Amino acid sequence: MKYVDLIKNTFIGCQLTDDEIRMARKNSDLIIKHFYKGQFLHLEGEKCINLEILLVGSIVSMQIDEYGTELVINTFESYEIIAGNILFGTLPKYPLSFFSETEGTLLQVNKLFLFDLFIKRPKVLKQFLILISDRAISLGGKIRLAKRKSLRNNIMEYLYSQSLFQGSSIITLPISKTELANRFGVQRTSVSREFSRMERDGLIKLNNKAIEILNRL
């Protein structure tokens, strides 16, 4: 009964009876998938074969560059659709990697089952189109913002502003690296790696909590 209630809260489940949900699960048209914290659920370029709806937990989509730097593009919370805009494409491959920030549960929806629902239940199709359209608009804006500046540029601009505020080229970060990472939409490890690269490239010098700005970009 627990999973029936969770599924009923989705845009698909609210249009199905309890018996229809149980039958769909029995036929593997609706599959419950559990995941752990810190798990890559999909990698960029992997084929998308099912619609997924996040029931419980938190997942982020991210780009990973050749240096291993992670740029978080979007965060998914309960009852949001994952990659619904690519499922019916000619080449349905994930354009980003998907990583779990917490443990949780996904609902996987069989592609043919979903297509049949679109035909038989127009309300399901209408809500699906609304959800993927809203997500596409939000995602497009975040990707444009992410491409506008590199992580290094963002960090250096922040350090310059703190240098002016603190009146010195040697500054102390007023926030943690985790908070700094959240500000730039990346993982904490990405910020730490970039600080190390910036020191290696002669831009800054790290000394415990103090940071000395040596050169501008």
UniProtKB/TrEMBL annotation:
Family matches, as InterPro entries: cNMP-bd_dom_sf, HTH_CRP, RmlC-like_jellyroll, WH_DNA-bd_sf
Domain HTH crp-type: 149-217
Keywords for the protein's UniProt record, in alphabetical order: DNA-binding, Transcription, Transcription regulation
One GO molecular-function entry: DNA binding
PROSITE patterns associated with the record: HTH_CRP_2
GO biological process, one term: regulation of DNA-templated transcription
Protein name: Transcriptional regulator, Crp/Fnr family
